[in-house]
Amino acid sequence: MSKDSQHPPQQRRWGWTPTSSRLGKEYGVAIGSTFLAFVLRLSLDSYLDDRLAYAPFLVAIAVTTWYGRIGPSFVTVVLGGLIANWVFIHPRATLNFTDLEDQAGIAVYLTISFALVGFAQTWRWAWEKTEEMTQELRMELDGHRQAEHEPLQVESTESAPAAQREHRL
To answer: How does the average pLDDT of the chain come out, rounded?
Structure first.
């Protein structure tokens, strides 16, 4: 049997690729960490009332940004801000941005959130560039090492027939 008959071509599932799997995990972390921050803040609601409404969501943003890329990070920023304002800021069950204190709270939340995302994503970009440059330098070094060994091999193969000729005489 030929190789093709033993292994029929695999059909591609509906748009699944390793990249989409990674994105699914990243967005899963975004939603999961936001949900855990919500549950944590809800469990502390009787003690905190409307104070520190955004704090647990900043932790969720940090976790998501560390694990994922910029898209999932912004999902966490938006979800966290909306949930905090809807559930924990008085009057509850409304999106309220009219009070000066609420506006200051959301402004601080967004500033810290974007700083977290910006710094972490810049760090990630720099790390990836460093890895790429390291790989390129390793490949270049390997090329130089191979180039150094090639002349030695050529010299040794050229000199061997001459030595053999002298030995025969």
So the answer is: 82
